[in-house]
Amino acid sequence: MTTTIVPRDLDVEFARVPRHWMAGNPTATAIANGVNLLFPHGERFFVRSVKHFLAEIDDPAQRAAIKGFFGQEGRHAHAHDEFNAILRAQGVEIDRFLERYKRISSWLEARLSPKLNLAITAAAEHFTAILAEGAFTQNVLDKAAPEMRALLAWHAAEEIEHKAVAFDVLQRIDPSYRLRIAGLLAATAILGGFWLWAAVMLMAQDQLSPLRAWRQLGQLPRRDPIVRRVFARGIRQYLARDFHPAHNATERIASEWMAARGMSMPGATTEAA
Ligand SMILES: [Fe+2]
Ligand SMILES: [Fe+2]
To answer: Does the pTM of the predicted model rise above 0.90?
Structure first.
């Protein structure tokens, strides 16, 4: 399945984002900032891993979807780089972590096969699509600072829009179930490991002990069970032999968000495969 995928620009100024921008809650902010730190380098890796196989894709519609995916991920990476600069300006130390994250993940990327890197991207894109769905359906962004709500909703809507691109390339290049599941295992370990590391590193800078962090999460109007909602559900779905990202019919929530802002999502009418 392919859709017309349109990169859109985000025009948001992050300078006024408060340090604890997620519900005024340091722990929730550290968890959200943790995954935000991973985005720029991670999304550029997604692009590289798909670009490696671009010459082998001859279907014009699929090539167009891939180009749209490149455009969207490039813009996302740039927007999150801009926000990371604000974290630095707020005195948050992120560069030691970013340097290690880039060094370790680049080391891995160079040693894994291009097919496995593509399979990792396909699985990671499934996780980001589920995260994106939660951003809209779990009201996760309701209490975020408006600039961050704009950034994350824009990013989430486009993640939903291009959720099948890497998966479809993987199916075209090598539809082996084993390879897909190897990608899932590696993506779970890499995303889960770096996210946890980043969140703990950020919490330590706010003097948040595990107990204080746990209590702060309990103060949120609705605890956000990322481990269950994103990882457990995401893995269970992805293990199904006939899984396809389009089985999660989330296009409507993304297209409604865009329509409310005067944007269209041409692929939203595509039926689930
Ligand atoms: Fe993205
Ligand atoms: Fe993506």
So the answer is: yes
